[in-house]
Hints:
The chain has 2 domains: 26-58; 60-103. The chain is built from 2 helices and no strands. The protein has helices spanning 28-56, 62-102. The longest helix is centred in the last third of the chain and has 41 residues, at 62-102. It is elongated. The termini are far apart. The mean pLDDT is 84. Keywords: Membrane, Transmembrane, Transmembrane helix. Residues 1-25 are annotated as: Disordered.
Amino acid sequence: MSDNIYQLNGGTPRRPGNFQGGGNGGDMDNLIKRVELLEKDTHQIRVDVATLSERSKSFATKEDVQLIRTDMQKEIASQTKWLATTIIAVAGVSLAVAKYLFG
């Protein structure tokens, strides 16, 4: 039965050799330095978020883009109608002038 058991951690102990399970003060200085760095990073993140929030006020929303798209489609349709009408009118006037001149 013992031949079916394999040790997965390679025989190394789970805790370092100097770990006694006592308080020993820990490494609070390192922790304090790390917390100070995180606080500095947090300040920079706040500045970045405030900048992005201010810039995002001028961004176009989906509704704005859709409104502009609708307006452009209406204007293009109107322009196309006027262009077609003008071309037909010019053709009619040209035919009338040609008939008058050439008989």
